[in-house]
Amino acid sequence: MARNTHVPADTSAPPVTAILARFVSGHASRGWSDAVEREAHRTFYNWLGCAIGAVYHEAATAALGAVRLLQPPPQATVLGSREKVDMASAALVNGITSHTFDFDDTHLKTIIHPAGPVASAVLALAEHRGASGRAVIDSLVLGIDVACRVGNTMYPDHYDRGWHITGSTGMLGAAAGCARLLGLDEKKTAMALGIAASQPVGFREQFGTMTKPFHPGGAARAGLMSALLASQGFTASERALEAPRGFVQVASDKRAWNEVTDELGERFEISFNTYKPFACGIVIHPSIDACVRLREQGITAEQVERIELRVHSLVLELTGKKEPKDGLQGKFSVYHGCAAGLLFGRAGEEEFSDAVVNDPRVVALRNKVQATVDDSIDEAAVRVAAVLTDGRRVEVCVDHAIGSLENPLTDAQLEAKFASLVVPVIGQGHADEITQHCRALASMPDIRTLTALCAA
Amino acid sequence: MARNTHVPADTSAPPVTAILARFVSGHASRGWSDAVEREAHRTFYNWLGCAIGAVYHEAATAALGAVRLLQPPPQATVLGSREKVDMASAALVNGITSHTFDFDDTHLKTIIHPAGPVASAVLALAEHRGASGRAVIDSLVLGIDVACRVGNTMYPDHYDRGWHITGSTGMLGAAAGCARLLGLDEKKTAMALGIAASQPVGFREQFGTMTKPFHPGGAARAGLMSALLASQGFTASERALEAPRGFVQVASDKRAWNEVTDELGERFEISFNTYKPFACGIVIHPSIDACVRLREQGITAEQVERIELRVHSLVLELTGKKEPKDGLQGKFSVYHGCAAGLLFGRAGEEEFSDAVVNDPRVVALRNKVQATVDDSIDEAAVRVAAVLTDGRRVEVCVDHAIGSLENPLTDAQLEAKFASLVVPVIGQGHADEITQHCRALASMPDIRTLTALCAA
Asked: What is the ipTM of this complex?
């Protein structure tokens, strides 16, 4: 039967499915540092803003249209709307909306967007069950740890091969989080992980289509259902992740099992989560950040004769569009990003609307941006000079853009981002209330206090 | 970005996603021979019997328990029960039950069990919509063609790598069948295939657990949802199957694209579908068949001194268990299979129950079976000799076991198999009625006439 010549089987893999199951079911509630606890709150809050913000996007409308055909009972909220659907469908739709703007979180070691699959599954289940905020945070931290550790085990090979790693590890994180929330024992948690291991979602070919954000949504749904199945006695292989014909070995030639086991329960991958300040590909972020800083120095568009960028070649390769025609193209234009940064001091979803991309003031400033390739500059850095009409030259160097691990968003910046996404959907009052509640999420007795506020 | 060294990308793949979408949406209703039409009816009927037969299995109970947590509306029947659930969950559960006994159909070129994912999705959707039998058969033929053609494109590499090919091509077949049933146009059918392409289900490590039959169920569900999403305007890549980072290239090093295009619309893969006569691994079938033939020659267990088998080494490698302790182990014992064949003239699910495996008469006869390896004999053949207490020696050679393409089950045998599965669940009267209706499925105005009969 062994006709498989291309992927040598690793028959000595440690029992990582069982190890993760024991960890998820047995780790103490809030068994981590204050820093981890804070990052969990920030991760949840950032995810929630992204999900609410995209609820009127056509991808959400189409997904919800399909879900309605199932005539779902009102178990869990479609965040940002008054509609409730069954919890599995809520996990799907909220997973889709949270990733629709490409504005969510990033675990930079693996480029997994971890909250999408995990929080979407956990919150839908928690709402239906009336779980506590504490239980939600615990489930989120542990679920994200599972997804990212399995991601570390396979990255970069798994991603390079073509998997969209967010959806192809997210089902494990969602299953782990939901198993924890359900209080499944070690054995049933292993079954939940095992069932989920058969359901990776997503390939990179889908980037640029609605199926990209479907990936975290589908993973959320699959993980939640896997935990429900396990709770009812459904079985799977106890070695579903690590066996020669299990998920990891089939989907990746890199199998660094130690990434699962090293410092398990001591180092938490959510510590390495970051939040996008700008609603576009991460490679433009340093340039936008630099232009925001120019604005903060009092420089206005009217003063500018030209803006000179020196960037790594990758920046122009991925985002070199000189004349974007609409919002989506704007996300692939470093020129547009710079104009938005200087004019508005921000580059949220609104600044990537069709209207803003075609605003004459924006177009005029964009045309004054010139980019030069300099591969001595890091991919994550930029050198920007504003040459002013009075002859002055103002330079800004960004080595670590805002939103990076080295220069994370402050809580205030995260709240501003949240407001920019949420206020247009549910208004300032509700948005402020949600922000208040999210600060103290861990002490909320019943998570439905929060989800009720998220129903516009 | 190109760190992928192990799988050279094929950048010249033909547009198979679009080709299949055009075929599925545009091929004429009943645009095939009488032989294909007959095989479609046999495929459906065999699948239905397997699904009804396993409805009380613990895997079905657990799956249904999880589905009930979603409080589903009564859209489609859990076959063999009075319960209705939402159509996506019905696709899931019926897909699980149809494969639970490992007794369903096999497309021998790829060892795909094609009806599980395709018929489970199509019938659930058809019941909810009150579609005609004609529409069901059309969707089944076209859906199975899509799944098996993509399977041919990747087999054996994809399977050897560790994918359970039934679930990892079945989502495409289910999406195609449901897109056809919904009457989606070419463009939306391509989207349905594209969304489904991100959701392959299943790895071989799960064999021996409930997650094995979950694979066709999960694929059915994923395919049905993909078609519903596409119907609402959800988008995916138009090259989701064939692009370098699309499903086929990521999941298989073999990419024989001509398997999709050759004789498309002329040769139908359902023509190569076969139906298991015995509820166990296909490698034991010739030995059981030979013992059934001995019985038909009047030989009884009491007359037998010993039974000598000569078989290919693979038979003992996979099914060499000398002393099976329960029903499941019995399925991996060629010795038990022979005893059942000679004693009962059959080896359905009942003959692999714990009780029969431990029946003293069966044990006694099993102990008289001796097997010798002879690799000059084909894997699919056997030489059997019964040495009798009176000194006689009766030999039977089986080159093509009953149920193979060369020696297919007759319609009468298929009906006997169906009855053995269905009568214990819903009684003789209902079983007979269903059989009557299935003969004339294509002329049934509303498929709910049939599904109502399948509600025990």
From this structure: 0.95
